[in-house]
Structures are given as C-alpha cells and as structure tokens.
Amino acid sequence: MLKAIIVDDEEAALNSLELLTQTYCPNVSIVAKGESVNEGLELIKKHNPDIVFLDIEMPHGNGFELIERSPNLNYEVIFITAYNQFAIKAFKYSAIDYILKPIDPDELVKAVQKVTEQREKQVSPRERYALLFDNIKDVLPRKLVLPSNKGINYVDLDNVIYTIIGDSIEFYFTDNTYKKSENNIQNLKEILLEKGFINATSSCFINLNKVVKVDRNDNGKVIFDGGHTLELNSINKDDLIATLTAYNLHRNKKNTNKLEDWDE
After folding, report:
1. pTM higher than 0.90 for the full model?
2. How many angstroms separate the CA atoms of 103 and 221, rounded?
3. If you write DSSP's letter for every residue of 163-221 in order, what string do you get?
4. CB count, 10 Å around CB of 100?
5. Which residues contact 158 (CB under 8 A, 6 or more apart)?
6. Which residues pair with residue 52 across a beta bridge?
7. What is the pLDDT of residues 109-147, one digit of tens each?
8. DSSP letter, residue 226
9. How many Å apart are CA 85 and CA 99, to the nearest integer?
10. Contact 49, 31 (CB under 8 A)
C-alpha cells in the first residue's frame, strides 16, 4: 500500500481527489491532507509518504517551493495543475507526473501507475525535480529524460544534430558522440517538432538550427555545424531544401546578419 498526502488550498479539490483515489486507486491510502506549503511540509515530515499529490498554484507559496524546501526528497510528486500548455511541456520533458484539473479518473490511475514503476526502479526523485526546475525557467524545456533500468540519463536537445527513431532511439550530437535508448519516449516526435526539428525521412529528425547547407550532389546530404553529414535520398532532398529555405527566410527576418544559403 502506498501512503499519500494531498496538498491543495481548495477544500473541494482535496475531498474530490481523496474520493477519486479511494474509488480508482485501491493501492493508495490518503493518510493526510493539507492546504498550504507549510502544512504540507509538516505532514510530509510526520507521515513520510510515498506520494504527494501537489497543487502548483496556492495563495501562500506554490508547489515548487514545497519541493525545494524538502530536506529529504524521497517521495514521488504528482502535480495537480491547471497550468498553461507551455509549462506542461516542461513536465513532459522532465518525466514528471501531472494531472490536469478537473481530474480525469483514467489519468489519475495512469499517474499512480507511473509512480509505482518509478519507485520499483529506485531512481532518485530529486534528480528529476531538479531538471524540472531547470526546464520550467525557460518554459519551453531543452532537456529530455531517457529512462533506463539503471536510472535516468539526460539529453540536451540543443546539442543534438539529428535523431533516428525506430525500434530504439538514436541521438547524434555536435561533439560527434552518440547515444541510444531502448526505452520508448512518449510524444517524442511531437517534442522534436516543437523544438525546431523536422523530418528528413520518416524516421529521421534533424535539428534545423544545426544545418549549414544541403549538398545536391548525387542523392544529396545535409551538412551540419562541425562538418557532420547525413546522407539523403533523391525523393526527400528537394522537399527538405524547400523547408530549410523557408526556415532560413524566417530567420533572416529576425536577424540582421545574413545567413548562409542552405542550398549549394
């Protein structure tokens, strides 16, 4: 049985979540409820919970402050939030569980299941929450979490030149290194597209910000910063050049410095 605490400044929200948990999550026991950061900290110290259901926006402090003030962060957090869509992306990148208000019972069950899996892997929660704080500062996060059986690894997407997505996920970096993940990452294609990547092929996403030019010779290839190259095929070469050209024009409108033509 997992011990849980709810911290939310709205009494109706506290009671609703407690009822939903009792109904849909029989492996979770709500041992206490609090209405503020300070009260939540006292309850955590007293009960040593496995899970804290934590509202983000409260009148006297927010959920992030509670985590930062926790001396021994050995519990999992499921954020309860009505946060805007950009901030929610930071949660996705950081592999942090969250549920949107009003709470959907199915989403509650999924979040509790994720917490159960995280605790079985015995991964330190503090690492993931530290990454969340880093990502939330910029609203649109840069780092991606790669879960593994041995723990978690991080990928800074700003240093990725391209990614191959298949049965596994391969990341190729500007420093000529390579990283492979066997774990599926939810919404990865959506995340890459939002971060400035485009499809070079059905399985390959390239970082537009790292492209120097596209070579038309033979089937064509993409040339990245640092001289890294990626072979293309004749089918997608012209489409890719058109996309890159449009992107270049967009950047030129924002930047007085002339950028190098994509196509040579």
Report:
1. no
2. 48
3. EEESSSEEEEETTS-EEEE-S--TTHHHHHHHTTEEESSSSEEEEGGGEEEEE-STT-E
4. 13
5. 142, 209
6. 5, 77
7. 999 998 888 777 776 777 777 767 766 666 555 677 776
8. G
9. 12
10. yes
